[in-house]
Amino acid sequence: MSALKILDQHPEWLRWMRENLARGCDRADLTRLLLQNGFDTGSVDEALQTAHSPLKPQASHLSAPALGQPQAPIVYHAKPVFMGMSALNLQHESQGNSVFLQDPLNPALVSQVLTSKMQLYLIADFMSASECQVLIELGAKHLRASTVSLPDQHAQSGSAQVLEQLGDQTYVDLSFRTSQTCDLALLNHPKVLALDQRIAQTLGVNAALSEGTQLQRYRVGEQFKAHTDYFSPQSEEYVRFATERGNRTWTFMVYLNEVKLGGGTQFVSIKKTIQPRQGMAVVWNNRLPSGEVNPETLHAGLPVLEGEKFVITKWFRER
Question: For the domain 129-317, what is the CATH code?
């Protein structure tokens, strides 16, 4: 049996405890959580008794009561489903290890990929198998070709397979993105509306700041090459798509099925590929602590090699 940990020897947990005391979390809930994570009872009690001056949350860390708060300029949260922990140890960046976080308000586990390059989170079992199947059946009836905001800027001259420019000023480029999309938000289905609210509540961001939820289907050989979700500042695409509502802040994606082979989500800069698992959410911040866009969020939907992949994606904006 491993030795119990002393709380004041773990500053990241100590800061987490103080910040949650400051936001009104129940001391008994915090004690229970710390004991579950292997801390000595005496050290927990002593830390709680001496926590007279809670530490002020730092904007550069995930210290808010909900996941999306730190770098979103306008945030509303009534009763957050979960929160993150600030000042995490980032020494295992090269291995892409994860640390599991838990909110006293919710038993669901959230894991953070430990890297200093971006904020990236996984939520196991965010949706049940039955919930996933309902969305697959709903979205499969309303598919269209997936689009990009601009044709592949890195393709060799003439190699971009742009089929058409659509009325919304997006493009179908089969040299870059080959999946199909359903605009679930346009169906006005009660299951989709409920999911929209659930995602926004989980992230801790007003649903009015979100784009409509989409479903994507990838069949064998289909992919989405490496890209970022934000619109490059001072670019043509920014003027087209971000002048009114601002840039994208957070991405919230959920895998709806298991993929037999391939189809992972590859984060290029941290050399980590996440394999689809039914019901698992992948959440990341597209910005730096300064509020500028984060190029390290470059990611790709790798080709499906066997079977097919269904995901839903929801993006949030600055305003």
Answer: 2.60.120.620
